[in-house]
TrEMBL record:
SUPFAM superfamilies associated with the record: Class I glutamine amidotransferase-like
Name this protein carries in UniProt: Phosphoribosylformylglycinamidine synthase subunit PurQ
Location of the protein in the cell: Cytoplasm
Active site: C85 (nucleophile), H194, E196
PANTHER family: PHOSPHORIBOSYLFORMYLGLYCINAMIDINE SYNTHASE SUBUNIT PURQ (PTHR47552:SF1)
Any Pfam family: GATase_5
Annotated Gene Ontology cellular component terms: cytoplasm
PROSITE patterns attached to this UniProt entry: GATASE_TYPE_1 (PS51273)
Entry annotated with the keyword Cytoplasm: yes
Organism from which the protein derives: Kribbella pittospori
Reaction equation(s) it catalyzes: L-glutamine + H2O = L-glutamate + NH4(+); N(2)-formyl-N(1)-(5-phospho-beta-D-ribosyl)glycinamide + L-glutamine + ATP + H2O = 2-formamido-N(1)-(5-O-phospho-beta-D-ribosyl)acetamidine + L-glutamate + ADP + phosphate + H(+)
One GO MF term attached to the UniProt entry: phosphoribosylformylglycinamidine synthase activity
Superkingdom per UniProt: Bacteria
Lineage per the UniProt record: Bacteria, Bacillati, Actinomycetota, Actinomycetes, Propionibacteriales
Known pathway: Purine metabolism; IMP biosynthesis via de novo pathway; 5-amino-1-(5-phospho-D-ribosyl)imidazole from N(2)-formyl-N(1)-(5-phospho-D-ribosyl)glycinamide: step 1/2
Length: 223
């Protein structure tokens, strides 16, 4: 199985995401923002960073990259897509997920080990977790506060589309402590914390992030 990881100008965590895919047992494939061809990958990760320098707002320019035109189309056909941090911002800007990510409420960059609760384990990216499984993975962001209108938030809650929620504290002011959400189909997930940094004991506080990558392997095999 092949997991493609997109590199935009300003991506920081693309190599880490490819490494996580390999640790999970997949073949990582580097995808370039200017190339609309996905090269036969079975799933796609949009990694963290500051795509195009976040010159307009986080993720706003990336939405128009040639690779995103293809990803948007394929996601609508069921391709599993995971957007991590800046990738989550790109998914919202692309309207693959509702809402938006704005500046942290304290207006500071944050980097910490963050406890989360996995509230939806029925997505392509979370099936290897138990429902309400508590994990700890790295969080690092400046524009990490998830916002949406009340009707959208109520719909996400009512449809069980909140994938992960912050525990212990709300590090960035995200509405309703939301750390990640999914689309209705469950193939597109946006997550603000970084599971790719928590797949090996040498480099992460835990290996709790590996389940995101092993989950999608099973999802593709069973599809």
């Amino acid at each position: 199985m092949k997991i493609g990881v997109v590199t935009f100008p300003g991506s920081l965590d693309d190599a880490d995401a490819r490494r996580a895919a390999a640790v999970a047992g997949a073949e990582p494939v580097a995808l370039w923002h200017g190339d609309a061809d996905l090269h036969g990958v079975d799933a796609v990760v949009l990694p963290g960073g500051f795509s195009y320098g976040d010159y307009l707002r986080a993720g706003a320019i990336s939405r128009f990259a040639p690779v995103m035109e293809t990803i948007i189309k394929k996601a609508g056909e069921g391709l599993p897509v995971l957007g991590i941090c800046n990738g989550f911002q790109v998914l919202c800007e692309s309207h693959l997920l509702p809402g938006a990510l704005i500046k942290n409420h304290h207006r500071k960059f944050i980097c910490k080990d963050q406890p989360l609760r996995i509230e939806n384990n029925r997505t392509a990216w979370t099936s290897d977790y138990d429902a309400n499984h508590e994990i700890t993975i790295v969080l690092k962001n400046q524009d990490g506060s998830y916002v949406a209108d009340e009707a959208t938030l109520d719909r996400l809650e009512g449809e069980g589309r909140v994938v992960a929620r912050y525990l212990a504290d709300n590090p960035n002011g995200s509405y309703r402590d939301i750390a990640g959400i999914t689309n209705e189909r469950g193939n597109v997930v946006g997550l603000m914390p970084h599971p790719e940094h928590c797949v090996e004991t040498l480099t992460g506080p835990t290996t709790d992030g590996l389940g995101f990558f092993t989950s999608v392997l099973k999802a593709v095999v069973s599809s």
